[in-house]
Hints:
5-stranded parallel beta sheet
Amino acid sequence: xxxxxxxxxxxxxxxxxxxxxxxxxxxxxxxxxxxxxxxxxxxxxxxxxxxxxxxxxxxxxxxxxxxxxxxxxxxxxxxxxxxxxxxxxxxxxxxxxxxxxxxxxxxxxxxxxxxxxxxxxxxxxxxxxxxxxxxxxxxxxxxxxxxxxxxxxxxxxxxxxxxxxxxxxxxxxxxxxxxxxxxxxxxxxxxxxxxxxxxxxxxxxxxxxxxxxxxxxxxxxxxxxxxxxxxxxxxxxxxxxxxxxxxxxxxxxxxxxxxxxxxxxxxxxxxxxxxxxxxxxxxxxxxxxxxxxxxxxxxxxxxxxxxxxxxxxxxxxxxxxxxxxxxxxxxxxxxxxxxxxxxxxxxxxxxxxxxxxxxxxxxxxxxxxxxxxxxxxx
Length: 378
C-alpha cells in the first residue's frame, strides 16, 4: 500500500497494512497498485523466482555452517528475507547498478556472484567480490547505511553522463538497506540529495523488525514508508515475504526513476528468522512466539503452495530444484576450503603505479611487525 498518514506503527506481529499479491496461505490476491506491474508474470517466471529463493536459502544455510566450523570469520544470515531480495533483484536489468548491504545474499546471486565471491568476502580476502563493474554490483557494505549515499552519487552520475548515441541513459541505481539503517544520518542525507536532484535511484528498505536487538517500533513511531514522502519521494509498503509483490513494486519504482520523475522508495515488511550475524544470540531479546508466528509466513512455502495448486510444480520439480541448490552449496564449500589467503605483504603491491621510498619503508615496518608474531610462536 502507499503510505497513509493515518497508518500507525505496527508491532512485529502485524503485517496487515501492506500491499501483497500472494498471501501466506498461497492464495493469489488482487492489489490495485501492484497488479498492473505483474500482469505478464506467468507460472514459468514464478518457478524461476521460487528456484532462486531455494538456492538463496540453501547457500545461506551453508554459509552459517562454514562459519560455525571456523572456515569464515562471520556470516550475516538472510533466512526469511529471500522474497524481497529475489523479487526486487529479478526486476532489474543488467545495466542498473546495485549497492547492497551485507545481508543481500539473494541480490548478489541474481547479479551473478559466484560461490567463491560469496565466501571470500567473509574470509576478508583481497578483491573478494571481483570487479564491481563486471556485474554492475558493489561489494557488500558493512558500514550501516553508507551505500545509500553511494547509490545516489552514482545515480547523479547517470544524469550527467550521456550515452554513446548522445541520448541520456535511463539506467537506475538501487540501494538496499535495513530498518536499522533508516535511523542513520547517511540514509536521510541520501534522500535529501536524491529528491533535490531528482536522481534515478530506488531505495529498498528490508524492514526485518530488528536492528540487532532494537525493535523497529522503538526506532520509528510510524511506518518507515512514511518518511520518504516528507522528502518528496513516493513510497510503497509491501509484504516483504511475497516475492511477486517485490517484483511488481520494483518495476513500479524503476519506471518512476527511469522516467525522470526522481527517486522511489520501497519498504518491504519481512522478518529476520535467524541472528543478526553469527556473532549474535537473538534468544536474548526475541519472544519465541513471535518467531513461530513469522515461520507461518514463510516466503518460499507460499509460492510452492500456489504453484502446486496451479499444477506448475510437483515433487519431481521440487526435488530437482533442491538438488541444484545442494550442488551450488557444494561448490561454495569447495571454494571456501580451497581458498588461500595471499601473503600479507602483497597489500603494498598495487597501491601506486610506481614504487617509492615511503612505500618501501612501510613495507619493511609491516614485515618486522609480522616477524614479531613468528618469534612469539617459537
